[in-house]
Amino acid sequence: MNGSSLKGAWKIGTLMGIPIRVHYSWLIIFGLLTWMLSSRYFPQVTPDLPFASYWISGILAALLLFASVAFHELAHSWVAQQYKLTIESITLFIFGGVAQLKGDPPHPRAEFWIAIAGPASSLLLSGLFFFLTVVTQGSTQALFAYVARINLILGVFNLIPGFPMDGGRVLRSAIWGKKGDYFYATQKASLVGRGVALFFIFFGLFSIFTGGPGGIWLMFVGWFLYSAAQASYQQATLQETLSGIKVKDIMVRDMETIEPSTSLDEAVDRYFLRFGYGGFPVMDRGKFLGILTLKEVKNVRREDWGKTTVSEVFVPHEKRWEISPEADVMKALELMIKEDKGRIIVMEKDHVVGLITRNGIARYVQIKGKG
Description:
The chain has 13 helices and ten strands.
């Protein structure tokens, strides 16, 4: 599955130039899966073996599942790289894996092949492990049989047209190819995805009341898919609204600036309270130095505001926190999200020409949306 990176993950290595990360939730699944396989599955299918062998098989099965999900995401990533897309990271988490692509597929055909690569790789692994069950026996055969079945389920499940799962992306590629509109295709695929998610939720609830297996898990999966599909729909709507809009169309040109010698008391009274903005560019004789936000002010004790100046607390400017007036607004928004900034400076030929903020973009989207 493709999507956004998750917080709470740490890097464990790099493959194909792609950072591989593990979310803490995956460790929970790893532990539960190892315990379940060691205490239930392997003792049932391979009785009369030493107790330690069950735990060794359980750990190996969990690790092979880990590797299978990573292989699934690497298949997506390899095909995406053939279409010159950048993969920022692959993250394994409680519901599987997610490959974070930078940018969108260039055309419907690329979307189709990138999406189908994941399920195809899982089905390939399923066939490989099934073959290994034929040539092995005992606990090894049971281990390979389990991994083969899991990969089969992983491949088939991901073909369900529940966007943003792989099947949903295949559906989007079909709608995109037919209508020629990427944003329309994303919105329609997201609506179908929400329908599939609701089915999972209600079927899971039904299973709980009727004593069926996996009801709670189905509800969790449905909730996750619904949230992801809703977020994809909102993102597509945002991208459609901001399509073709440049930074110069939204940026603030007449900025209120603050001098570095200003005390925080004066900054709060004359700037933050007066104008109601969350931050101000710091300028010294026409030279841009950085930005002062309420966050920096609040980090100073109230009683020290009078003897603390802006120069002591503002955030100095860095080149990566600026953007051109000719850049797309979406690029500016992505930069602010990536750098965790509420505002970035707009530079042209090394001169400050404006300021663009998240609130300004949100206000523009709200007004255009109502129109």
